[in-house]
Design brief:
eight-stranded antiparallel beta sheet; mainly beta; Pnp Oxidase, Chain A; 10 strands; two-stranded antiparallel ribbon; Phage tail protein; about 45% strand
């Protein structure tokens, strides 16, 4: 006997990120979407009397967020490269400078991005992440046939000052 699976078409979602902020400042447009991934590594606990694992315990938990910042501003390059000091608008008219020096510590950011959610009661899904560190190489390139953009990957760190269960952040449909 076959059973019919109940499918709610409104729960099948697609659509772009509509807002992305770093430390409360919008980064502008993105290309290629925004991806959040969680990878938990498990260790198998084994005993001599049983073939195979008797239990699994987590040994590592990594959450990453990846996007490409389409707006090639110095402020976005500062975020992508993990530079502590913001770009400075010079007293010389029409110039802005981003100092590129030695990185002595990881710069932590708060991320908030918004996208679509299943239709029905709510209209958007907001992801808030308390501590994010840029870890991937962002290229500054000048090419004839390509737009300049900064690909960035953030590792998400737990914020132990937050409520238990939301140390990394929250995902809210609203």
């Amino acid at each position: 006997m076959t059973t019919n699976m109940t499918i709610t078409r409104g729960n099948i979602i697609a659509g772009p990120c509509t807002s992305f902020t770093v430390d409360g400042n919008p980064i502008g447009g993105t290309s290629g979407g925004v991806t959040m991934e969680r990878k938990t590594t498990m260790v198998d606990l084994e005993i001599d009397q049983i073939v195979g694992s008797v239990r699994k315990v987590p040994s590592k938990d990594v959450i990453t967020v990846t996007t490409t910042m389409s707006e090639a501003t110095l402020a976005n390059l500062q975020i992508a490269w993990g530079i502590a000091t913001a770009p400075v608008v010079s007293t010389t008219p029409g110039t802005e400078t981003l100092d590129v020096g030695v990185i002595s510590s990881a710069i932590e950011h708060a991320l908030v991005f918004v996208g679509p959610c299943p239709s029905g009661t709510y209209s958007s899904r907001t992801v808030t992440l308390h501590k994010a560190v840029s870890v991937a190489t962002a290229k500054l390139s000048f090419e004839k046939d390509k737009e300049q953009a900064y690909q960035v990957t953030f590792d998400i760190l737990p914020d132990l000052t937050q409520t238990a269960g939301s140390e990394y952040g929250t995902i809210v449909d609203q």
